[in-house]
Fold:
Amino acid sequence: MTEQSRSSRRRFLQAAAALAAAPAVSHATHGASPEKAGQDTPPALARLLRKADLPEPKGPRVVIVGGGWSGLSMAKYLRLRNPGFDVVLIDRQPAFLSFPLSNAWLADQVNMEFLSHSFFEAANRHDYRFVQATVLGLDRTSRKVYTDAGTIAYDYLVLAPGIEYDYPQIGIEDPVVQEQLYHHFPGGFYSSSELLTIKRKIQAFRRGTFLLTVPSGDYRCSAAPYERACVMAALFRRRGIRGKILLLDMNNDITIMKDAFARAFNDLYGDIIDYQPSSLLAGMDLEKRIIETEFDEFPFDDAIIYPPIRASRLLEEAGIADPHSTQKTARTDPFRYHLVDDERVYVTGDSRSQPFSKGGHTANSEAQYVAEVIAGHALGREVEWRSPQTMCFSTVAIDPLRAMSHITYYRYDEASKDFAFDRIHSVEKWDVTGGQASIAWAEGMFRDMFYE
Amino acid sequence: MTIVLHFTPDPENGRQVYDICARCHLPEAWGTEDGTYPQLAGQHRSVLLKQLLDIREGRRRSPLMRPFVQPRIVGGYQNLVDVVTYIAALPMNPAHGKGPWPEATPEYAQGKQVYQTNCAACHGQQGEGDDARRIPRLQGQHYAYMRRQAIDAKRGLREVDPGMSSVIIKLSDEQIALALNYVSRVEVPKQDLAPSPGWRNPDFSEVEK
Structure:
């Protein structure tokens, strides 16, 4: 036996011993001293106040809230940019499911295994810790995150909690109605159950009108609602369904690759897709299945209602959301991403305050940069700003998959003191090369976040 | 055992292969000043080919690009030879990103010294590189890109050949920045440049917005 394998075997035995001892030890700890739990703290809540089961950090601990495209990329690149960091990624979901490429999955062009990945593998491969927990709140003074798995202290905190639907923006204030709408006619951009529900809906659809909406504002994945209309139309045709797709767009026009999508709606799916721009929603009767816009009333048989979105409520609950911002984002330094008054707390991904297009590629490229910023802060290194990119593939036709592509860079405009589009390159033809590229793109992203 | 394969490049096929690359690298292959993407136009064919094969095999870590250079997407060796031939012949960006210190600053002079002592023997006096020895052309490359790559190489985050690695580990981050500032300011021969920064690759004009 070589020296190396002997010592690694020894380490393994120690780890096994520690594992065997763990339940007893942690039980004793929890019973004896739940952190500052007062006399009258109900036992169920005491659990929240104890420390989460994590080893003592070996270096500055960076806690990342949200295991989406931003958080996963961040965790990896933080470890790469500063191997001294102890990185903890928190997500409330047990596994990762990709929303990008989910339209291709609706059309059976990729399978569920292609979209689903294990947080464990990502954490094991890139040497950080994954904690499945729901974040309940923050204490920025003592630098602590409260979760349902206990408290976690941080030296740096990255908030990448993503988006929520903003139903009040379409006039639905009642939380009960919001939930009804969310469960019965989900938009497909927030939770994985939505995607499964949508696929079932499409499979079960036989005839009539299928309503889709495009939200206003900076919504997640600009092209996706238009892409979804195309994919569904292609599916209707494949299955010989005599149905219509009513696409109500809250914007005055198609928001991205306008000419190309208009061409696809007319030339490929003119008999199926009825595109209605400037359709501000004025009311909805869920029982009778009627949707009202300012000037019209449309009956529908089934629907996917994508409302406008906002930043995760977590920011608001943590007291860091800017009440004046439309999407309730935090006030952050536009180049460094930290809160204006706290260089230990960063906000990235789709809950960022910068107006970049929301989506997986933006989040990944941004995280590579922000990881360097945070590592630079800890190591005393300057990092120059660089633009995220938004790469977007849009499936227009299936069997075989044919897609368009669009890449955007950003620049800071001194005059308006805001970010603007820099170079945009759209490939507004749908072809097999684009379809292959879209799959290769997603595969590359999954490799980056989980496996390489 | 070394097996040598010979291919006759077909630039027209190279143009078609480049279509998928252009989705990210853009039709001009000019890269970005902030160093997120390198300038590929005008680079030596052997250098481009080596990068494609290194990324394909995982010797150069680029998980995002790796699926694109697999045979099922980009094709076999012939396609690789064709696409690098096409890229190498593209006119270069006449306004690539330069380092912060102009000529006549002491930093420029120091950088020239560092470059000539440490880099010029392989990369050439003018940063011209060497196609035959697969040594990258640095001339015309974005400063920010070169600096990130060099510093990553020094920290072991980018694999480079032993010769390069033995030099780079001896240099401080500051020396690296100075040397690269100098070489980023070497003039690119006019015949290699596009007429203006607004030039757009006509091979892809039908898809450019």
User: Anything to note?
Assistant: Chain A touches chain B at residues 80, 364-365, 384-387, 389, 391, 405, 407, 409, 423-429, 433-434, 436-437, 439-441, 443-445, 447-448, 451-452 (CB under 8 Å). Residues 1-32 of chain A form one domain.
